[in-house]
Amino acid sequence: MEYLEDRFPEPPLRPAGPEARARVCPLQIIGELQIMIPLVELSRQVDPARRHPPGAAVWLMRLVTGLSSLQAYVGGEPFCGRSAVDAGRLRVGAGSVHASKDRGCL
Known about the structure:
Blueprint: H1 2-7, H2 18-43, H3 53-74, E1 90-93, E2 96-99
């Protein structure tokens, strides 16, 4: 994120103040380590040759854990137009993970 901010300063991706930037840092870490890594691993389940349902279940649980961490950190503050991340809207089907498309953000 810092690279993108430095490379393309407008519009800013991070808040201007040091306190707000410090608050964003854990969100970035949660997003990178606890959400993106499981999503990448789950995306590999799309290929039938690489599909491994028990492994998908593990990565799905790690994703739900990451979303729960995000929800715990954000707390009651509005997040993507909602007051919480709804991990219950995730479903597993044929070795892949889907989010409900009718409601936008998780």
